[in-house]
Q: What sequence folds into this?
DNA sequence: GAGGATACTTTACGCCATAAGGAGTTGTGC
DNA sequence: GCACAACTCCTTATGGCGTAAAGTATCCTC
């Protein structure tokens, strides 16, 4: 379950995200830092602690008190460094994405000087797999509403990497925007489904496969005319069956293939 | 900001989702309903009230108290009908999706008896636009984590509709699964972005366009070497410029076109 | 050494979901 | 007609949450 809890100050988030580590003191507006006790914490340390809590115990357990505890402070101590929880989440989000590889600096270049490479498919696939893996390493990121695009440096860097990978396909700008959006949303959504399957299975102490079986059985029991009501779904579920435990991986691979085919068509069609 | 707040009982959600209105009394396990005062509420009424609150005041304002107030009851009265807030959200989610049109019962059939129709693109486009519009009518649905796929009847019906629309493309099952996932995630993700843009603009009392301008200006100010660091992004943003206020619509259309091209390629390639 | 800025703590407020128990209402079986 | 069980709905209470407000201890500047 997810609750939207009021926006937080995106303005402040942006400052913190882009402020960098060079600020003499933690990022509150009018602070000189010439006097007073040395800060014992830092924004970075708080973000790390937050990620540690979320990785270990899930988003539900991520409270300001929990983060403070992990640092040997009270919850209120964090407010010296970070305006509030919403902004902390924004920072955690971008820090998680910062694990993504930057990719090669230069795309392959042909004799005509233009970027060239039949293998933009491989490059985009690599990008997508890296993002997918990152989401699965930090599933809590998927509960931070994508409806709050704060545009941190790591997120933008990831988009830039994708654009670089797509460069050889030479898409017209409009198509390029569409493709980038579709790819990003696809990876995120697919990762969310995978994360949930794993999480639910782990929480109930059952294998992924057994969990799916239990779910299906229960559905069939509750909706007796299931096959009559949803014939195509029923057919699809039984048909061409991959091992259910590999189904998520498969959905990722083939969905991505569909997207890449679409991009290829755009490239060809100009 | 979004918080994952503990799973709730998916088992109970499923019962409520599929139980239908034919249960003699609200859906608690061992109730006969032969005695006691007549129920003044119903699961349906509670779900409607929840949707009304969320539509009018957003997910942040959706509390059990708020829902109870709207029905002239206390928060605790709801627990007679619904096990908890998580399950209520599941019900609200499925009810929102129930607004989607079911689509024609039969796909067009050719002389060979197989479903046929060059216009599966139109059908899928129609499906995607309907889902997109539904999400924008109820943006709070997008904050319910997709990482809790409870599989209500309306959600499954929407998938069935999509499968029916895709039938003429005659995709192999593996590809079909990939395509369905990609389409769904794409619509959801794109709708989330649009919803956020509108929401943020509305909250600050500014047009979408001005909001984007302010955002860009602030980014440029905070990251002085922006263009050097993200050359492709910078280029893409300026290039081929649609009116920024139409950009979301455009991203939806062209992203969908990319997906459809990919599906067409799969159909051709068998 | 005084004074001010700063880090961090304690306390408190108003929310939240919901557990526990009680009051009033309705039907059933005697 | 009456006791009782079933049921709805309420009040109260618990333990969480984010964070405002105010206090204390630390350190630098003058």
A:
């Amino acid at each position: 379950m997810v609750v939207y809890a009021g926006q937080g100050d995106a303005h402040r988030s942006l400052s913190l995200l882009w402020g960098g580590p060079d600020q003499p003191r933690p990022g509150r507006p009018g602070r000189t830092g010439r006097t007073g006790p040395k800060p014992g914490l830092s924004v970075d340390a708080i973000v790390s602690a937050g990620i540690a809590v979320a990785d270990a115990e899930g988003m539900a357990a991520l409270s300001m008190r929990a983060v403070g505890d992990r640092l040997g402070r009270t919850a209120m101590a964090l407010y010296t460094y970070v305006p509030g929880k919403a902004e902390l989440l924004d920072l955690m989000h971008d820090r998680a994405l910062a694990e993504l590889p930057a990719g090669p600096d230069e795309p392959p270049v042909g004799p005509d000087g233009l970027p060239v490479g039949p293998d933009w498919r491989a490059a985009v696939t690599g990008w997508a797999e890296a993002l997918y893996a990152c989401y699965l390493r930090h599933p809590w990121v998927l509960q931070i509403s994508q409806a709050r695009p704060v545009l941190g440096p790591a997120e933008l860097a990831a988009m830039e990497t994708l654009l670089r990978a797509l460069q050889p396909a030479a898409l017209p700008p409009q198509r390029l925007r569409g493709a980038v959006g579709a790819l990003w949303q696809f990876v995120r959504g697919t990762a969310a489904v995978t994360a949930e399957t794993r999480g639910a299975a782990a929480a109930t102490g059952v294998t992924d496969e057994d969990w799916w079986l239990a779910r299906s059985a229960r559905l069939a029991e509750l909706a007796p005319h299931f096959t009559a009501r949803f014939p195509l779904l029923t057919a699809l579920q039984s048909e061409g069956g991959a091992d259910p435990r590999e189904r998520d991986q498969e959905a990722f691979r083939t969905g991505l293939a569909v997207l890449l085919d679409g991009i290829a068509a755009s490239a060809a069609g100009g």
